[in-house]
Amino acid sequence: MLWSKDLIPTLRQVPQDAESISHQLMLRSGLVRMLMAGVYSYLPLGLRVLNNIQGIIRREMNACGASELLLPALQPLELWARSGRDKDIADVMIRFTDRRGRDICLGPTHEEVITELVKNHIVSYKQLPLVLYQIQTKFRDEIRPRFGLIRACEFIMKDAYSFDTDESGLDNNYKAMFAAYKRIFDRCGLNILTTEADSGVMGGKVSHEFMAPAEEGEDQVLYCPECKAARALKGADKGECADCKTGLKKVNTIELGHIFKLGTKYSSALGANYIDDKGEQKPVIMGCYGIGVSRMVSAIIAQNNDKDGIIWPKEVSPYHLVILPLDTTDGNIMSRATELYKELRAGGLEVLLDDRDERAGVKFKDADLLGISLQVVIGRESVKNDTLELKVRRGQNKIVKPKTEILEEIRKFING
RNA sequence: CGGGGCGUGGCUCAGUUUGGCUAGAGCGCUUGCUUUGGGAGCAAGAGGCCACAGGUUCAAGUCCUGUCGCCCCGACCA
User: Strand locations in A285-373, DSSP E?
Assistant: First the structure.
């Protein structure tokens, strides 16, 4: 992509209506813009990051046998009355009446819808276990939206649902999801603490949360700095590690994932039964597994930045690489830049070419702010010495070498 | 919803206390010249229902009333 043909509205100063680091950097680097409180447009760069995160989630979900589908955002309120949750979460539902007088809501979550769907198609134990997931927009009338994408009224969630015949089947799926979540967050460059949690309005007995430590986090968690192992306790304000007796530390965290063993709450309420091998009708045993996808963008930034801007972890970087020709009026520089641009793209890389007629300083500042993993700088020296300069955004290390060697370095970085 | 703060060109802000001439600055934008490896310099321009509505006054960005919006602290959650 050519920078001049894209929409990347970077800001030099910190916008007044952003306090948290992630929110400031998202606005400054042109990832998102607010439409109203808690509702954001994803600009081209923001969407690229979002798509990268979703790609990782899809691969990990598919790898543990989950199948993707897409459920409606529009839902009849009557369905919620059947599970009783129309009252439980009445105030977070965004609801209205359509022209036929039907009471409708914009789905804040999808347990009812998926259970209703599965109920009509699962009749036998032979069809189980089954794991389904979607990546979809949720709508919640939040009491107080804040921190940009961290608490939004319209946000993107990955929600998965498992259906089993027995508890051990649920355990298996739960463990598989737990492991998949670890991999997802790891690949996205996130440090995560896991904690046992309240099931709250979701129901069920067992649940775990995946918390990303960050200064701007809304939740506080206790963890053991010695064991590192996620020994986080939510809600308590003192205590010591059960294993090594070290005092626990308190950190602010952003909740990114929450998984639940639901049991039969929804299947019983909505009549999602199957026939077991003895011919008996039994309610399906369910689990549900959520990740705040758009919230992850904020958390990744909160954990990966420096004074110059964002430092995208490799796999979520909006582009693999940005090329900075330092003087667009210099034919030699520009022909090298466009040649490299074409070559890298032909090799399957996502490349941004900063073809703006800006001074070097502006390009350096903007490139650092955007946080794309790799930068290739092409200036007078590059032409004179027939070299290229490669900079790794994380650590800001620069190497100057002939093109073939730089290409090799790029390949190593991306595949390594 | 309770408590606090804010609203003036695309962005950051001054001006409001104590009402007074055509509403300012920096950045950004346009044009020209000079510059050219870490947010350039000079010159000339464009861009504002001062959040909105009503009121007080000879006169309102400034005072009064109401409304809306945004941010921060609390309950809620991915």
Answer: 285-292, 305-306, 309-310, 321-325, 351-353
